[in-house]
Design a protein that fits this description.
This protein is α+β, with helices and mostly antiparallel strands and 142 residues long. Helices cover 21% and strands 33% of the residues. It has one domain: Nucleoside Triphosphate Pyrophosphohydrolase (Alpha-Beta Complex), CATH 3.90.79.10. The protein has two helices and seven strands, in the order βββαββββα. Strands 1, 2, 3, 4, 5, 6 and 7 form a seven-stranded mixed sheet that branches.
Amino acid sequence: MVVPGIPIKLLVKVPCAIIEHEGRILAAQRSASGSLPLKWEFPGGKLEAGETEEEGLEREIQEELCVEIKIGKQLPVTERDDIVRIIRLVPFVCQLATHDIVLTEHEQILWLTPEELPHLDWAEADRDVVRHYLDYLAEKNY
């Protein structure tokens, strides 16, 4: 329902990649000069007009890390309200299809075990993705 005088918030869909490789997961540290400086995240980005979540994710990973990925299972969506918009993070468990990572936007990356993931200073929306991913692993290994 639209209420007069209350602005409608923009919904921004942001697919992100939980990239697994040899038992470790890639975490990327945001740039010091951008929004949420030096927070950790799963790489990805906003969709462009007409893109599916998978197409946008493949493009963003190519732009940010210069690699190709194989997209697997989608995990639960998380949302973060940042006053003027709602960020909808759509995580996918992914594998590397190519391996020579070149950082174009991030300060650094780390390859972490699942147990190490909760110890980083994650961006708010990514904290829930970490929790959902650990739940996914627990169910998978049950």
